Please model this.
Amino acid sequence: MRFNLQAIIHVPGATLPFDFTMDLSEVEFFGEHPVKKPLSVSGVVSNQAGVLTLEGEATAELELTCDRCMKPFRREKTVPLHFLLAQELEDEEEGDIVLLDGDELDIGELAFSAYVLDLDTKNLCSEDCRGLCAGCGVNLNEEVCRCKPEVDPRWAALSQLLDKTE
Ligand SMILES: [Zn+2]
Ligand SMILES: [Zn+2]
Model:
């Protein structure tokens, strides 16, 4: 999504709001297509005393698979967008400045790369997901594992006692 910033580049105090969606459903990430619904991108480019800044956010609902229990789950993820923009670099030392393409800026590309870079490589349905039992494979969030019967504490005490008398 390209925007022409001509109207604000040389006008201190001028702003250009933006609000659009991007279809990322075909974008593969770690073997999945997590961004099923469109990414919504919104914010504003402003000329603050001659300095161009972009402030906004990109947000989408992700469809992920839990790495521990293998269940699919959904999570909304929002990534803030903060960029300094310039038509040309005046000082080599100034990093993190996004160069305009003439008067134009591809805000879609900026938002897309910021969003994808911020995606997690590990996904858990919840921080305390108990995962699958290594023995029987049940989802321990939903079921009680039956492959390893609990030893009755009274029997445990008795067998300790027997060990000592032998
Ligand atoms: Zn899980
Ligand atoms: Zn089990």
User: Anything to note?
Assistant: The mean pLDDT is 89. The beta strands are 2-4, 15-22, 39-48, 51-65, 72-86, 97-99, 104-106.
